Each structure stands twice: as C-alpha cells, then as structure tokens.
Amino acid sequence: MSKFKQLNEAIIKGDMKLAVEQTQRALDEGSNAQDIIDNGLISAMDEVGERFSKGLLFVPQMLRAAKTMQECMKLVEPLLKEGDLTSKGKVLIGTVKGDLHDIGKNLVSMMMEGAGFTITDLGVDVSPEKFVQKALEVEPDIVAMSALLSTTMPAMPKTIEALQNAGIRNKVRVMIGGAPVTSKYAQEINADSYAADAGSAVIAAKKLLGIS
Amino acid sequence: MIIVAEKINTSRKSISEAVEKRDAGFIARAAKEQAEAGAHYIDVNAGSFLDKEAECLCWLVDTVQNAVDLPLCLDSPNPEALSRAIKQHRGEPMINSISLEAGRFQSLLPVITSRPCHVVALCMAATSMPRTVEERVQVGSELINKLAGEGIPLQRIYVDPLVQPVSVDTGMGLAILGAIQRIMNDFAGVNTICGLSNISFGLPERRLINRNFLTLCIAYGLSAAILDPTDKRLMASLLSVEMLLGRDEYCENFISAYQNGHTAD
Which of A33, A69, A105, A147 has the least C-beta neighbours within 10 A? Predict the structure, then answer.
C-alpha cells in the first residue's frame, strides 16, 4: 500500500488530476500494471468502502473516488494482456422483478467493481428466469439481488427457487440487500448473505468467497 | 399546507414491536401526539409485515381511528392490503400510492374508485424512474389525466414528484422543485405532496437537509407533506415559511404555535 501512497490518497480524495498523474508516473517508473491496480487503486477503494460503512465518508465522496479510479484504469488496463486482469470473482447483480429502484444496486455494483470483482449488471425489474438465464451464461460466483419495496421482496425467494430448479443454486452464493431487507429475511429465504450498504456488500462478498 | 404524519410506520422498530404485540396504547399515543402537533392525516404503514400486512394495516386503522378523530393515509403499494383497509376506514382516507408501474395502476383503480378518497399519484413510469423535470411532469400529467378520467376531482389528487437523493445526482433537487412548480401551474386545483427523507440519503446532517428542502418545496408550491409533525424545528420552519409566503393571515398560525410552545427546541 505504502508504495503507492500518493496514488491511494488521490483516489480516496477523488482528486482526478492528481490520481491520473500518479498512475502515469508509476507506469513511467516501470511499475507493473497489475501491481498498480491491486495496490494503487483497489486498495484505495477498499479503504473508501470501509470508511463509508463507518459513516466517515459519504455517497458523493464514494462516487467521486470510483470515478477517479475508472479514469486511472483507462491508463493501466490497455497494458494488460487479454485475460490477464485477475478478478476477485464474478458477480451477477440486479433489482428483482417488479421493482424499478436502482440507486442502491448501482452503488453496490460500483463498489464491487472498485474492489476488483467482475460485474454483470442486469438492471432493474429482473425476473427469476432472467437471473437464471444469465447465471447459466456467465457462471457467476455470486448472485446479488436488491429490492426497495416490501411487495417485491418475495421475488427474492422466487429467484432462489429458480436457481435451485435450474440446478445451479449450489454453484453460486446469493447475496441480498435493500431498505426493507434484513439479515433475518436472508436467513428465512436461505440466501447466503445480507449487506446493509455498498461498503459492507464488498466485505460480505469477499467473506463469501473466502478472500481476505 | 396539509400535513400527513409519518411516524406510524412498521419500518420503525418501536412501531413494529407495538403492532406485533397489538399494543393499542402505544399506537394511540403515537397518533395523539402527532394529531396534537398539527397533523391533518395520520399515515399508517405495515409494509414490513409482508404476508400479514393487510391484517396489521386493518388493526392500525381501527386502533388509530379509535384514538384520534382524523382521516388516515393508507400507505402501501399492495392492492389487497389497501382494499381491506379502505373498508375499515371511517371517513375519507388518503391512499398512498398509485403509479404508472406495470400492473399497479390497474390493480389499484378498483380500490380508489370503490369509495370517496384522496389519492397520492407517485411519478413512477411503467418501466423506469423519471430523472428530469420534463420526465416527472410527463408521468405526473398522465396520472392526473387518467385519474380525472375516472371521475376523481383534481382537488383529491396529490402528485408526488418522486424524491430521489441529491447525493447521487446534484441536479435532483432542482428536478423535483421544477416538477412541483410545473404541475401546480399546469393543473389548477391539484395538490403536490412528498416525503422529505429520500432527498438526504447518503449525506450527513440529514434533518438539516430535509428541513431546508421542505422550505424550498413550499416556495415552489408544494401543498402537502409527509413528515414528523412532532419535530419542532421542522414545524417551526414550515410555519414561518408559510407566513413569509403570505399564506398565514395575521400570522395567526405562527404566533399561536409559538404561544403553545411548538416552536421552541
């Protein structure tokens, strides 16, 4: 972490100009692209997520940090060979059927991406069939579902059931979240994890996949 | 300003426990406290009870109406819960809410036309959430026209412009305010209503933000609000802003709130 201290700080602050400069400098000095991603960018976003979960940092700051990281990635990514970028895991995410709310889901998506996961975002109003179809196609490690309405929450167990019927429930870990959702509900419907916000979603996802 | 008091909502732990135990005394106190603070409608929401929502909502209707002589705002997107609660209700309730979301309009229509009521029309489109002033006005207008077409007078329609957080888009505040202004101008007699707390999601000092947002909404023409009337600072803001906008003859409401100790912290 300390090797890219200035870059880390620039990402956390969301100072785009400085972060891009620091990334370019690290590349010019011969740093390895993967090393910059892991220890310059992702580690900074981990810190952002942690501070957000603790209430030390707020949504606009999180958005700004993520945007800054994306700009830096544009410099680094072309230097990696196809398939070289190591992913923490594949996440299939969406807001459940009948529910059009996407703000929370988008924040989770963004922070997961910042943490090094590969995201497939199905958007809003995603039916159990659509979750299953895409899960068969991308073979995700995690299926993440969001619901903001108590009336759309039952689509979560329905989706889990559809994964079961497709024979892939045991191949994925299921995470859920959204304002009316609780960890108790996650237990009731046999989801594997619940997360209250975007920062803790990253922590929960890593825990599910045994990543420290 | 029509005040819909928001505290009897089972997403709050104390209310949820009281409903679970059927503690009528606790609910009655929450209702009376809000009525005394100036509520015109008492909102009741039992959404967190999921498959037992209808039963719990009906119990809340009875319990609250036994405690206070006010109409209620029946707060649920669930047609079954609403159709049962509306039958239980004495007088004319407010129904919160109908929208253009697929299935929601058609399934709620029989409920809101089954007896006289006031209706909150939430600006959600069939398959998306509006972002700009233009999109909100378009959804709001369509809802107003459809409801009016079913014989519901404009005075009983409350358009909710859909409050979304300013933390994810700093243009959100102006998009909501602009929509309030346009809808109030385009449809004389219609009401606009909103809750406050969504605006401040993801930010610190939420009560401060909510209070200032209410002030702005009132200035742009908002005619009803879903809020906590026992929050004295919020109510003091509301009353002083109404007075400053010339909606409080002889400054009577503001002064009497002061004399009754409702403006002090």
Answer: A33
